[in-house]
Design goal:
The structure holds two protein chains of two kinds. Chain A is mostly helical. Chain A folds into three domains: 37 residues, no CATH class; 27 residues; 49 residues, no CATH class. By secondary structure, chain B is an all-alpha fold. Chain B has two domains: 169 residues, no CATH class; 53 residues. Chain B is built from twelve helices and no strands. Classes of the chains: A mainly alpha, B mainly alpha. Chains A and B meet through helix 1, helix 2, helix 3 and helix 4 of A and helix 2, helix 3, helix 4, helix 5 and helix 6 of B.
Chain lengths: 116, 247
């Protein structure tokens, strides 16, 4: 029952609806239902947020360390270096997201150009 | 907008705030989000999804991390239950975000279906914008404002995804590589910025390290393991530190 296992036009859409829509909007609807009943500062919420954050961080790291497409042709050290430089620029440059993205892209492009 | 018999003076007011919300969707955070969607569209195309499937995914899931996880599961050839579970786990954060937004959004007479409908637009960018700006919107008009803001953000990025699908073939590899770096960089920075407490930052560092490690040693369960162990570890440190501080 993978994305590719049923050869019908509707299957990918059903896959996206169940694997994507249901799996996200269920949480949003639960949020509306609970709306204000759970304290944002409760211990359960700290755990839930930490779990969610670590999971998304793992997704991010895998996108950089094991990328798809054209980024895969760039050496690992350059990918990690560009991301680290961008993140450092964000952290120490006043927490501007654009600065972080800009520095990372600049380092990546300079590196690609230098490797020729 | 025309489904209720609202006095005409009120309805113009709602439209006014709806349009203000629409205009709020054209801002710097929204531009960054659109650039991340360019990267996502490239990722989806690389994974073998079609234009219609990816635009559909943008409309019905909306939250970018969830979409990236789903495409990751599709690339890895995960089964539907495993994919749904990973997406659900990556989207737990939506519930507390909505919990925080609802009191801001709700007026006395707001019907609950309106809130359920609007909650679909909740994702990092629209949430940050809403928490920042709803304070300056009259309470009665907040749902209209958020409908304009959230709905327009979704629509813009559905168009962005479609355009990238049509153009990406012609991109040189260097531009394509730069594109693929946009999504992780956007998440890396915005995730750090949105962390509420120190445990969030600790969890993020754990996740960044454990993700690639488990990708090698626990293929198929890498995200789950990184989330549970990284997040659990960060939570325990949080508990331990607080106990230490109060003792």
């Amino acid at each position: 029952m993978t994305f590719w296992s049923i050869d019908a036009w509707w299957w990918p859409f059903l896959f996206i609806l169940i694997g994507g829509w249901l799996a996200t909007d269920a949480w949003r609807f639960l949020g509306v239902y609970l709306g204000g009943r759970i304290s944002e500062d409760s211990d359960l919420m700290v755990f839930v947020r930490a779990l969610a954050t670590a999971l998304v961080a793992a997704v991010i790291a895998n996108l950089i360390v094991f990328p798809n497409g054209a980024l895969a042709d760039v050496p690992l050290a350059l990918r990690v270096g560009a991301a680290a430089a961008g993140f450092a620029a964000y952290l120490f440059g006043g927490k501007y997201i654009l600065a972080g993205i800009g520095v990372a892209e600049a380092v990546l492009l300079c590196g690609i150009w230098m490797l020729g | 907008m025309t489904d209720e018999a609202i006095p005409s003076s009120d309805s113009t007011d709602y439209l006014h705030w709806y349009l203000k919300g629409v205009r709020g969707a054209f801002s710097v955070p929204a531009l960054i989000l659109a650039s991340a969607f360019i990267g996502f569209a490239g990722l989806a195309k690389e994974a073998g999804l079609t234009l219609v499937q990816t635009v559909f995914m943008t409309a019905v899931i909306w939250a970018l991390p969830a979409k990236v996880v789903l495409v990751g599961a599709i690339i890895a050839g995960n089964s539907l239950p495993a994919a749904a579970f990973a997406v659900a786990l990556s989207s737990v954060r939506l519930a507390p975000m909505v919990v925080a937004l609802v009191p801001e959004l709700r007026a006395e007479k707001t019907r609950s279906w309106v809130l359920y409908f609007l909650s679909h637009f909740v994702a990092v960018t629209s949430w940050v914008l809403a928490m920042d700006r709803l304070r300056h919107v009259p309470r009665q008009a907040r749902t209209a404002y958020y409908g304009g803001l959230g709905g327009t953000l979704v629509l813009i990025n559905m168009i962005v995804v479609a355009v990238v699908f049509l153009l990406a073939e012609t991109l040189p590899p260097t531009a394509s590589a730069a594109l693929f770096l946009l999504t992780p960089m956007y998440f890396l920075t915005s995730l750090w910025g949105s962390a509420r407490e120190r445990a969030g930052h600790v969890a993020m560092v754990f996740g960044l390290v454990l993700g690639p490690v488990f990708h090698v040693y626990l293929p198929g369960f890498d995200l789950l393991a990184a989330g549970l162990i990284g997040g659990g570890g960060a939570y325990l440190i949080h508990r331990f530190r607080r106990k230490g501080a109060s003792a």
